[in-house]
Amino acid sequence: DGGITQSPKYLFRKEGQNVTLSCEQNLNHDAMYWYRQDPGQGLRLIYYSQIVNDFQKGDIAEGYSVSREKKESFPLTVTSAQKNPTAFYLCASSTLRGGDSTQPQHFGDGTRLSIL
Amino acid sequence: QQQVKQSPQSLIVQKGGISIINCAYENTAFDYFPWYQQFPGKGPALLIAIRPDVSEKKEGRFTISFNKSAKQFSLHIMDSQPGDSATYFCAARRGISSGSARQLTFGSGTQLTVLP
Predict the structure, then answer these.
(1) Residues B112, B15: contact at Cβ < 8 Å?
(2) From the candidates B103, B105, B106, which should be mutated to test the interface with A, based on the most A CB atoms within 10 A?
(3) Pick from A22, A92, B12, B90: CA 20 to 30 A from residue A55's CA?
(4) C-beta separation of B25 from B3 below 8 A
């Protein structure tokens, strides 16, 4: 089955530590996205990428970094500069071809990050 | 300009009743309006979507009503069932001409509870 796999499901970070969240998709989608979800605030865009080796900052990129070395993979690093990293992180992907009906964003099942 | 305002924050409906969730936007560059359904511990899944040249779209028990002049759109769930209990997000996507990667801007979410 095609889909988006996020790992791990739960992650704990110590103070001053960087952690990396994994996102892999086998949908052959061009674009990939990272969102942060906090209670009562909906989803906020952290970074997105439309093509390998290129990515753009979203609305809340500070304290985060990404890479896109392969089409299938878009890992997110939460750095120690992110002072409030506790949240539910969601990865999504979409195709950039075709009409709007073929461009919905498909989401993974998220990683919940907590501070020790 | 980028905000999408969603209401109510929470909604309790009896089984068989109608659930109505409302969203409003300001940015006229938005050209695609999806609704997502999210169950606890899962990623959002696309439920139904509409373009602004259509005033209503129906898929099964789910209907989107769109009022372009008022910049408002709403989700109606007819014959609501306990299995519909979830968090619902409206979203809006900027058009190609806006020069963006067509990323989504999400509302803050509505937690729907359907009582048996």
Answers:
(1) no
(2) B103
(3) B90
(4) yes
